[in-house]
């Protein structure tokens, strides 16, 4: 199933039952997490060969190049495998927004988290209008 992917890279991958690995995508300049997508061997090969992020669409059942229809491309600046080989980290130069909803990042819906005992104050989420931003006390 490795297609044209370098055999040394293919041997390091730990794929799920569908032959996919998670692709975590972050902004190359800021480190901000932009999205999570899925890759098969061919998508990873195309990404590494072209420098343009290519993914496997589970809903469409086909490959897609990010930005192919929207113009919101991801130019890959670096790629790395995690320690288990079941996830790829792509650092990209994002052209336009990353999320199909029009948001810069797909992770734009914060969830409430209780602070762990002894952990101190929870750092603010970028773009979060917390109490201080609303005129209240922090």
What does this 3D model show about the protein?
- It is a single chain.
- With 138 residues, this protein is mainly beta.
- The protein has a domain at 7-94: Roll (Ubiquitin-like (UB roll)).
- The chain is 10% helix and 28% strand.
- It has helices at 7-10, 41-50; strands at residues 21-27, 33-39, 54-57, 62-65, 74-81, 87-94.
- The strands form 2 sheets. A 4-stranded mixed beta sheet has the order 2-1-6-5, with helices on one face.
- Strand 5 and strand 6 form a beta hairpin.
- It is globular, with a radius of gyration of 18 Å.
- The mean pLDDT is 89.
What are the defining features of this structure?
138 residues, mainly beta, Ubiquitin-like (UB roll), two-stranded antiparallel ribbon, 28% strand, globular
Task: Give a nutshell description of this structure.
The chain has helices at 7-10, 41-50; strands at residues 21-27, 33-39, 54-57, 62-65, 74-81, 87-94.
Straight-line distance between termini? 54 Å
CATH topology of one domain: Ubiquitin-like (UB roll)
Helix segment count? 2
CATH class of one domain: Alpha Beta
Query: Shape from CA axes?
Result: globular
- Rg is 18 Å
How much helicity do the residues have? Answer: 10-25%
The overall strand count is 6
- Please identify, by name, the CATH architecture of one domain: Roll
Spatial order of strands in the largest sheet: 2-1-6-5
Q: For the record, what is the CATH homologous superfamily label of one domain?
A: Phosphoribosyl-AMP cyclohydrolase
Q: Are there runs of 5+ residues with pLDDT below 50, and where? A: none
Order of helices and strands: HEEHEEEE
Main sheet attributes: strand count, strand direction, barrel closure: 4 strands, mixed
């Amino acid at each position: 199933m490795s297609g044209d992917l370098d055999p040394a890279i293919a041997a390091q991958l730990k794929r799920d039952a569908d032959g996919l690995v998670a692709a975590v995508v972050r902004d190359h300049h800021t480190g901000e997490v932009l999205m999570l997508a899925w890759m098969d061997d061919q998508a990873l090969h195309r990404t590494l060969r072209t420098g343009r992020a290519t993914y496997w669409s589970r809903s469409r059942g086909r490959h897609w190049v990010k930005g192919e229809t929207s113009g919101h491309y991801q130019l890959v600046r670096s790629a790395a495998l995690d320690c288990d080989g079941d996830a790829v980290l792509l650092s990209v130069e994002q052209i336009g927004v990353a999320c199909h909803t029009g948001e810069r990042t797909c992770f734009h819906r914060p969830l409430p988290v209780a602070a762990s005992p002894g952990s101190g104050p929870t750092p603010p989420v970028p773009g979060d209008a917390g109490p201080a931003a609303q005129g209240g006390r922090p």
